[in-house]
Amino acid sequence: MKTSAALLVYLLGLLIQIVLAYENLALNKPTWQQNPYPIKEIGWGADKAVDGRFTNLSAAGGQCALSAFGKSTAEWRVDLEAILSIHHIFIQYPTDNKPWDENNFYIRRFLGFSVYISNTINKEDGVLCFRDTNYTNATIPNPVNITCPYNGRYVIYFNNRTHLPYPSGYSPYAYSDLCEVEVHGCPTPGFYGESCSIQCPQNCQEGRCHILDGTCLGCLSGYIGQICDKRK
Known about the structure:
The chain has helices at 2-20, 107-110, and strands at 23-24, 31-33, 73-92, 114-118, 127-131, 144-147, 151-160, 180-186, 191-192, 198-199, 223-224, 230-231. By secondary structure, the chain is mainly β.
C-alpha cells in the first residue's frame, strides 16, 4: 500500500508539472530567414529551428537552420499565427557537437544578438526582449533562456555587423544559425497564469493581459485601472 501511495503522489507531481508548464508555441509554425544557406537541398531551411529536434547540433546533422556567409545582417523569425501571451524564449545554437567553450567555432557568430517580439514582421514595431552587450567567447551560454513576458505574434532573432569596430572575438559577418527556438507561453489568447487557465479581466482591450499577473495591456473605451475595473 505504501508503495502504491508513493507512486500515486509521484504521478500526481508529474501531472502538476505538466499542467503548469507553458506550451511551445513555435513548434512547427511558419518561419522565415533573411539570408538562408543557398543550397536548399541539404536541408538547412529556417523551419529546422522549430521542428522540435536538436539532438544533433552539427551543421551536417539536418536539425539546424543555417544562414549564408558574408552578410552584414542576419534575421530569422517565427510566426505564431496569432497574438499570444509569451513567457520565455529558448534558443539552442549549433556546436558542431563539440564542447561549448571559448574555443568553439560557432560562438563568435552569436555575440551581439538581439531578440524581439512584434505583432508585425518588422522588429522595429515590436519590443526588444534582449540585446547582448556583455557576453564574451567565455561567457555566452548555450542554450539561452530569455524571459520576455509580452504579447505578440512574431518572435524575431537578429544580429548585425554594420557598425565597426566590434569587440574582440566577434565574427566579421552576421549569422542566424539556429538549431532550435522554442517560444513558451499560453496557446489560447485571453488567458494567463502558470497553467494558462485564468481568463484575462473582461474589460481588457482585445482580451489581452500580462501573462504573469493578469494586468490589462489596454482597456476598453470607458474603463481605466490595471485590470480595467474602474469607470472613467
